[in-house]
Amino acid sequence: MDVEHAADLLDPEAIARADALGLHARYVVEGYMAGEHKSPYRGFAIEFAQHREYSPGDDVRHIDWKVNARTDRLFIKQYEQETNYVANILLDGSESMTYGSGRHTKLQYGKMIAAVLSYLILHQRDAVALGIFDEGMRDYAPRSNSRATLHTLMGRLAAFEGEQATDIARNLHDMALQTTRKGIFILISDFFDEEEAVMEGIQHLRFGGHEVIVFHTLDPFELEFPFNGLVEFDGLEKFPKILTRPAEIRRTYQREIESFQRRVREGCEKNGVHYVRVDTSKPLASVLSDYLSFRLRTAKGKQH
Amino acid sequence: MSFLNSIMLFGTAAVAVPIIIHLLNRRKFKKVTWAAMKFIKLSVEQNQRRMQLEDLLLLLLRCALLALLAFALARPALKTAGTDVLGQTKVTAVVVLDNSYSMDLRGLDKKSAFQKARAAAKEAINAMPSGSYASVLLASDIVQEKDSIISPTRALSQAHEVIDRAKVSHHATDLYPAVDRAVEILKGRAALRKEIYIITDGQASGWQQQKEISKLIDENRDDIRVYILRVGEAKPPANYAITGLDVSSGLTPVDHPLRFDVTVANHAAQPATNMVVGLYLDGGKNPVDKVMVPSVKPGATRTVPLYARFAKVGYHSVRASFDQPERFDSLEADNQNLLVVRAVREVRVLLVDGDTEARDPREHESYFLKLALAPVADHYVKVDTTTPADFARNVLNRYAAVVLANVERLTPSQISALKEFLRQGGGLLVYPGDRVDVGFYNDELFGKHGLLPSPWGEAVGDDTQDGMYTLFQPGGYEHPITAPWNNREFGQLDDVRTFRHLKLEKQPAVSTVKEAGPVKVVLRYAAARDAEDALGAPAIMERDWGAGRVFQFSSTADTAWSDFAVRASSVVPVLYRILGNVQAQGDAGLNLRVGESFLHPLAPHQPNQQGRVVAPGLAQTNRLSAEVLRDRPVLQFKDTHRAGLYEFKLDGDERATLFAVQPDQRESDLHKANDSELPSAATLIHWEADTDLKEQVQKARVGAEYWLMILLVVLAMVALETYLAQKFSQSK
Fold it and tell me: How many helices (H) and strands (E) does chain B have?
């Protein structure tokens, strides 16, 4: 994909829909995490917002003693947090992601997810770091909360072309070691790799206290396997060719791929990772809105 | 196990087809670049064994299917199989129906043998399983193809129709050609059960080639079953026949009493007495002459003379017939004999004399010849004499014959004139002598023009030694001209003394001249006692040339080398019969034996001339169109299977030409062959109306074909293949 076409990555419909939810996005993320873990943002007063009256249970460290001295009443200082939320988007750019039966390859679709999420996150004044990897990290944009970064990110995404084999686990381990500040890891991949190793990588991230969201990106043909006649499958990532009649193995194949998806999902769930299955034939907007509305609902559920 | 259509076994090579298709298909596939290879690999690994097995199973099924199809088309058969699975094994049969005229003989039940034979033939056909094939051959001494079904037909009703329409011919019986033909027909057929039904009255003459027939049946006994169905009376009734009718003198002038020789044969076991033979002219109901035949011994013949006189020039029919034939026997065809003759006002002969130098005409070469031909003044034979120098000036077409007597040589123009004369149907008689240039005759007339039947060879004998001579053959005369002398009552030829003659070759080289016909010996010298060959050297030979005929003598026309010229009782009838023969030759064969073609020569300017023939007893007119025979246009009539008087007319000419067809005399001998004389390899059935033929032949019908069964298996396999291919291709 050319750099000039970088704007294509931002699916306007997807952004429009996601924007509508954008007001809640940060809240959703925070709230969700607050319920689940110790808030990573606690103790960071970035910008004073307002006072409110103390009620039992509030942290006494946040009582504004100066106001108490003047008014003899207890007020709590409330702050608006800024730029301490970092989303690390990791896009699998291996050769297997270049497969696509329809309008988009998985890589293109993944790029769009990455782009839209980056836009949303930056739009909410959070920070985004973007990494595209295969066997190693091929391209990495360090975290930034500047909206101006968006253009750079789009350019990088658009310019990338997948050529190499993949090693997801190694990249996850590297990221876990390098990223000391807790944040969210958004992993976009087809997960055509050693499943156990990948799970170990995810566990490593989780162990580091990171939130992990997985976008499991698959092409509809990879799910349905709709080929007929005699077909020679020429493997990406240097896989040897296989000549077979797909119709005769279709059910086995479908069983295998479903089982693979299930294993990935279960692996994610076991590790407290949010799993989103992405079908590249579906509009990006619906995928994202499904996901975000899900997050919203989950957050609400936690709030009440 | 044998194969009736073994060439189809090559079709088993078709088993290679599915393999080739399989291999070709493996080279024809779509290419897809794919990411999720791991799962395909897993799926293939799980299914590979099953898929390979399925592929192998389908491949084997398809190969077997094609192999079995080829196998079925090759029509496998087991000759010894007793049961016919699915009843698909058919019979291919040839019915040989004897229609020789002895089949016309009626039995005590007033039914002719031929009526019974037809019923037997139909029953033989009815006894075949449906779907069988049958040929019907009307057979006598020939196969009457026009009225037969040669190529076996499945339409058995057609065979019935042919049998219903079949008529008795006037041929003799000799079943060998028909059996040979039947075997040939069946050999060309791919069938398991082949049968020949020979339906005959068992007349001995039909089995004259019994050894050859037996050999034929024996050679094919594994392949073809032969049934002989004897019909008619077991013992032959008495039969008498008129086997010969001929003009003694050879020539048929008007207003002269003519002697006709009638030969009567007794084929009965008892001497024949009180037989009266009458001579009838031109279809008349009353005989012009009658004679009582003296007693004839069983198996013997007797020739009696009858006399008649023609009043008009032209064609006449002469019929010799038994008086009240119904008294003698029930075989009608041989109770009479027919002859067609052309009565002439006069016969002109030109003698070319090569030795006329002597003053005394009695010493001229042709003196005695002229006397012999025209013994009295005003005789119906008119003789002109000329010299070789003047010969070409004579207009030859006025003459019936030209005689060259001791002529040294001929000029090219004389040879041309003679050839044209022969083309028009003239006769040429050539005598040697001391003046003859033998080299010229041999090179030119024999070699170059093919006129003479034989070259003249070395001189045999010495004309100066009166005590040293050769005689003519004492009997066994083969040629129609000399055949009457086989009857000693007619006279004798073996008293003629020949002192010197030029050798004629017994089998001269075949001429390359198209107009030159085959060579025959008319008369021979007596064979030397110690000679290896029982046949003596030729004395007189003849050959057809164009429409005419050439006679070549080995000795002189005068008395220089032989006394033949002065033996009036011999030389006169021989010369007259030669002239008569020339005349008959010019008339294109007015008297034929059954089966011989009637030929009417046409002039070269008549290539599109048509004609018509009315056959005896048939109202229908047969149209004749010109055809080319030996480079000359002719009208030909071949359908002369029944004896009788035929009438031929050229289109645009109302004058009729008559010709007679004689029955084959051999058939008159009704003597039956014993059962033991019939081929032992054939199954003999004495057929009567109540014979259960089907039961008898069914027993012997062993052997079964299996193609239908295999085809059903193939069909089942096709269904299985379709089902499996469908099932296997479903995703798993």
Answer: 12, 35
